[in-house]
Amino acid sequence: KVSPKAYLTQLRIEYAKELLAERNVTGHTVKMIATLSGFNDPYYFSRLFKKKTGQAPMLFVNFANLLLVYD
Q1: How far apart, in whole angstroms, are the C-alpha atoms of residue 36 and residue 14?
Q2: HSE (CB half, 13 Å, CA atoms) of 64?
Q3: Average pLDDT in the chain
Q4: pTM score of the predicted model
Q5: Residue 40 and residue 44: Cα distance in Å, rounded?
Q6: Assign residue 38 a region: left if phi > 0, alpha if psi is -120 to 50, beta otherwise?
Q7: DSSP for 9-43, written as a single string
Q8: CB–CB of 49/56 below 8 Å?
Q9: Is residue 22 a contact partner of residue 65, using CB atoms and an 8 Å limit?
Q10: pLDDT single digits (tens) 45-55
Q11: Which of 4, 50, 13 is nearest to 33 (CA)?
């Protein structure tokens, strides 16, 4: 069973992943993506993103860009 807070965090991280994957198109900074995803503190966002996904936000961006190149 997932708590409401954990569910909301999961939704925010998933939305942030979408925004990060589109970063090369939108030009958003990680700070802006954190804010758009509902996180007030970009450092907390970065730590939580890494904890939940296993990757830092910029590493995720780089990986997403590689997928685009080889897709």
Answers
A1: 12
A2: 17
A3: 91
A4: 0.87
A5: 8
A6: left
A7: HHHHHHHHHHHHHTHHHH---HHHHHHHTT-S-HH
A8: yes
A9: no
A10: 999 999 999 99
A11: 13
